[in-house]
Amino acid sequence: MIPDSFIQELLARVDVVDVVGRYVQLRKGGANLIGLCPFHNEKSPSFTVSPTKQFYHCFGCGAHGSAISFLMAHTGASFPEAVRSLANEVGLVVPEKQQSPRQRAADQQRKEQRSQHQQLLDAAQAHYVRQLALHTPAQDYLQQRGLSAPTITRFGLGWAASDRHDLKRVFPQYENPLLVESGLVIEAEDGRRYDRFRGRIMFPIRNRKGDVIGFGGRLIAAGEPKYLNSPETPLFSKSHELYGLWENRQGIRTEGFVTVVEGYMDVVALADRGLANAVATLGTATTEHHIRQLMRASDRIVFCFDGDGAGRRAAWRALTTCLPQLRDDVSMRFLFLPPEHDPDSYVREYGAEAFREQAKQALVLSRFMLDELATRHDLSEAEGRAACVHEALPLLATLSDSTLSTQIQHEFAQLVRLTEDELQLRLLQQQKPVYNRERAEAPASSRTQGESSVAPTNRKPATANRSKRARSVTPLAKRLLRLLAAHPQLALDLDHDALEIIVHSPTLFLVQELIALANDTQAKHIGALTQAVDPESDLAHVLNGLATELLQHEELPDPRAEWNDALRRIQIDAIKQEQSDLIAAGLPDEASRQRYQDLSRRLVRLTTAPAP
Q: Which of 54, 166, 561, 572 is the most buried (most CB within 10 A)?
């Protein structure tokens, strides 16, 4: 493994402008450089590279990152390959973390196992393709579905024979345990083995590099289950993968949006008819991992479902998964086809252009959410509106911190005849037990870290709590985050009082995490921070958004003065809140009254002192 400290040293020496400039023709555009995006087709440049932030961002497709992530995205290099390539250019030798002999042996075993699994899957895929060429009924079925030979070849479709041990012809050592681990063979309780896929059209499932990691199989005769997927394996997890994403990567860029459909055949059939921008989940509901992959693929996502009750229920489940990950730069829409059609049949009857038009007219996420809530309750009566608020509060509480989320809350408040302040009060009441419980259940080590002069280092809160923390980002918190992102060195010399203010504020969780990240990595710029942050965390989402904002703004003349002023304002707010709590309690004893007077004196000092 490559040490994090080396990654930061590398990013401090490498210039992202030089790296990007090898592949993209850049020209000066103010403080930044601009050019045509290499990740999607465009006529006017929307791709921006910042030499001071060491970060690139495309305002058209949303691609962004550091010099390392650019090499990975543009050349297909793995992370270690990209790091080694850049290190060679600046004369650095990539160190490896010291491992014990036992750890090295375990790592080597895992690599060999993954390699062996890959070889087995590749051999099976080649066999299934050969079998399709020999099996006329399977060919007839695909022809009846209207699939052309080039499409069948592009998606690598094959055929698994009905013989229970057909793979013995490919793998003479049929007892090899890796055949079971790779999902190709099933071992019964009595020890007998047989092929998992039999009598099925085979759809290879590929990862982002194009490697086969699993299969989906469809029966062409009567029987159940009609669709069958590979099980979870060291290479394959259905909750993380999307069928067709690799094959349709270019089509998604060309069409300008990605369509999420329900089946393999829909993906292939749409591509055959000129809509090579569809992907499908693998027999499971849409997950947060799917959403992240979709947002990396395109800034316009159209979920396509049947218009019946089952389709709308599936759409609602997808919507609830999307809410914590909403972004202002990503449009999510919901398309409901007539009940008698799936995407394949719709395009066959009406054509690709009609489907594109339907996608343009699809309901935006906010409209679908509000309309669906409105249909479930009688909003003409107080009881119905109250029930609607009761159902909606848990959904609104998961919303990410974004302008779109604010707009959704604003429209919902109007829908149920609440003021925005009334809705916010109910949301705060919804959130308050979460924060109290988190603090009460926090381990002693994490509670005491804030008392010292060392920034907290536990920057990876539980996944279940991340969306709740992200929604508490206040304007002052945003100000601190923006300053820290632009000037990570501000986190390196925080004094005890400033750190105490941040640690004890209930709205500065992400600020605490960013301080910890900056201290841990010694990052010099936001490009290095985005490379070091956990990509699945709320902080990663916030940093990516801030990097985009910072590309469009001039440098502040005195960032430290801005930082100190923001800390002063946070302290003022905290004092006023404590005073309000004391007044609400009625100042029942001398200690309370004395505390109130002490706070008043501190408030006077803070508000009358000249701004830093």
A: 54
